[in-house]
């Protein structure tokens, strides 16, 4: 009896395999992008979102979705990080830089039908201000703290009539508007927040071009066109599905078979195969990142500036870029990319000059007796496509000038924690900007107040510290840029890093995709995208 | 029999308790601070400290452990530090995805593996036997990552027979009820979707099945060879029984016990060990759920995930033990 059922099971299986194989071409007709409407866009990405409440998370994959469901008071322009009106159509700043008055767009509705108005904005700010770092981590990072705390930037937020919101600050903050434009500060429907409570992250409601439909964890998030969207004629597509495909090669495979329409995280080494395929197009995201080799200045021999400069001379950055970034990157000259305002164009990278490096090492009295640890990133990032191989190339460069190294790697969370404790001699790392502001690079990565978090080199300099703090409060853009330019000169001379590359993150899409402009911050809005 | 099952279930308690201790301490021994990981690279030190406090991570280890154990005894698996959702609420879809995949993979492995083993033993030293031996060797030693990508390249991209990855067609998604999609589509009468889901299952299931299939085939072969040499088989043959019946009925019944043991162990391994397959084929299963949790130092999820898999592992092997007595009436549990 049992054998019979076993045989039956086998038979069913064989039949279904045959059926499946025969049905191969038939399901292509269900491709809804051919419908009269805008169709469905399937966007393949490397990971799932953590929560769809943008204020509650810090990861890019969450923002990728929420950026389309929520809108911020002020938004970044389509292709760069200049500021444009968002839910606020205009704003005024008081002379002392402490009062911001926003005039809101009218006739805007949340997806649940709630009216968008000054009261809704105030409720959002109150929700954040009354939270803590656990609930709203980015609010803490960007605005210093919560209601009543000494470090808090925002003092209070008040409505003035239906369409005006006044935000008062405790102290001026130069990048305040840029911070407001970041994805975490999308305005949520106060009705939905109240109704859903802790579950708001599973049922997000905003004013954005798309409304939330469903979420299958680790698999897909589906959003659909919001019929009452205030910008007429947008969005163009009916539905967007964010599909998680963790493996880069598998994601490209899914694109090639047409299961997805757009794929992010294309390895530079796959770029040529995409370009060779007439059904596909390679899409470049404007660079807002920097990949670097950091030297922990509290560890010998990197406490000596000459040794750090020698390392800068010893590494052939051009060769790294052509070998591992497949040319999809520029040699980095500063700790921040050129797209950020305040970038110092007068500085050029240390040239590749092994002789000069040897000379400096000799002057510094470096004996090379001990092999230094060179840490290789265990995960690929746009700014560091292959940490291991890049580390090997650097190892060779350093060996040529007489610096012995040993390549070390740890699992990612361990790597970051150990590096933050200053346990690495030299380490590979990088940074992608959150809001396109210089402060988000220079202060975050190289100021003494960032030691223990993102200043992994433990670099400390009283001059740059003064300049960076001053720049945080300077609201005059030109003066502010001057301060940053000066700081970059010092960073260049002190050389706590070898800036390696400003890379161009790559995406690939079907050739039918039009009007898609990937945003430098990595959070794309799919309102203008079309499938033709 | 009932007595035996009861006793075995009681034995579960110390085993699972031991698991909680091991898992709890091993994951805390890895460096990496959950609070830092959750808050991201931007976080200030104060924020990290505050979060450590609110997560209870600043308590001494034994306080944390007994809190955890206390919650567990009340049936509370804990809350994910990262998604802030109760694990009991969020784990089922992952588990269902893995169960569906492992079940299908085991079905493939058993049907092909057992038959290949039988035929190899039946025609020992024939071309089939040699081929099966070589294939089994390749099967156990082939990296799943490579096999998965090759399958995608061949069957999906070049031949366009099967989809590359995922559980469903994103343009025509399945409405989950039980989260076992084959069953869900049948309940809803969506046979079109049933076929789509089945097609999504084939490649990952095959990739996952290769190792157990090879092991099962080898085990069946050696076990069958031993039985085929015994006297009662010679007698059966001498009586003029059809060879097919001798092999599949008399011999198999006596040779199947060690094979069952291997099947039980392999099924348990598949549940937790499908992580590579789940990654390559973007299968939203429990292996990836735990793997991601390790990356984020999401202690409660790692603990709960491993505990559930350990539990399933033990249960499956208990079922196998019970099956012994059904297959071989001489085995009795008292």
Look at the structure and give the CATH class of the largest domain in chain B: Mainly Alpha
Number of strands of chain A: 21
Helix content of chain A: 25-40%
Poorly predicted ranges of chain A: 1-36
Largest interface: A-B, 71 and 70 residues
SS-derived structural category of chain B = mainly alpha
Q: Could you write a compact summary of the structure shown?
A:
The complex is a heterodimer of chains A (532) and B (334). By secondary structure, chain A is α+β, with helices and mostly antiparallel strands.
Textual characterization of the structure:
The complex is a heterodimer of chains A (532) and B (334). With 532 residues, chain A is an alpha+beta fold. Chain A is built from 16 helices and 21 strands. In chain A, helix 9 (305-314) runs antiparallel to helix 11 and helix 15 runs antiparallel to helix 16 (477-494). Chain B is an all-alpha fold and 334 residues long. Chain B has two domains: 32-76, no CATH class; 92-327, MetI-like (MetI-like fold, Orthogonal Bundle). Chain B has helices at residues 2-29, 34-39, 45-54, 61-73, 87-122, 127-141, 144-158, 181-187, 191-228, 231-238, 243-273, 275-280, 286-295, 299-327. In chain B, helix 1 runs antiparallel to helix 14 (299-327) and helix 11 (243-273) runs antiparallel to helix 14 (299-327). Chain B starts with a helix and ends in a 7-residue tail after the last helix. The model of chain B has no long low-confidence stretch (mean pLDDT 87). Classes of the chains: A alpha+beta (532), B mainly alpha (334). Chains A and B meet through helix 1, helix 4, strand 10, helix 7 and helix 13 of A and helix 2, helix 3, helix 5, helix 7 and helix 9 of B.
